[in-house]
Amino acid sequence: MAHTCRNCKRTFATELELDLHKDTCTEGQLFCDECGERFAERTATTDGWHYRCPTEDCDGKGIGDDIHQVENVRVAKQ
Ligand SMILES: [Zn+2]
Ligand SMILES: [Zn+2]
């Protein structure tokens, strides 16, 4: 079974390859504290102001609230 990155739609043979890819995928710049998923900015907002987690059954919302920029988190960890 192929594993597809839902951000950029690339496919990988194994789940491990997909996990490694997710760390570098340029399409997944945001992540949600509520469900831990990563996703592309354009899937979370339509107006660049109101953000909402695109994951079904997740009510995470708000940039800097439930939803964070992956880049900012990496900087904060250093
Ligand atoms: Zn990707
Ligand atoms: Zn979420």
What this model shows, in words?
The chain is of the alpha+beta class. The protein has one domain. Helices cover 28% and strands 15% of the residues. It contains three helices and five strands, in the order E-E-H-E-E-H-E-H. It has helices spanning 15-24, 41-44, 70-77; strands at 3-4, 11-12, 30-32, 38-39, 67-69. The chain has a three-stranded antiparallel sheet. Strands 1-2 form a two-stranded antiparallel sheet. The chain is elongated. The model has no long low-confidence stretch (mean pLDDT 87). The structure holds zinc ion (2 copies). The site of one zinc ion has 7 residues, from loops.
Described by strand count, sense and barrel closure, the largest sheet is: 3 strands, antiparallel
- What fraction strand? 15-25%
Number of strands: 5
Shape category: elongated
Number of domains: 1
Mean pLDDT: 87
What is the H/E order? EEHEEHEH
Give the termini separation: 37 Å
Strand line-up in the sheet with most strands:
4-3-5
Helix percentage range: 25-40%
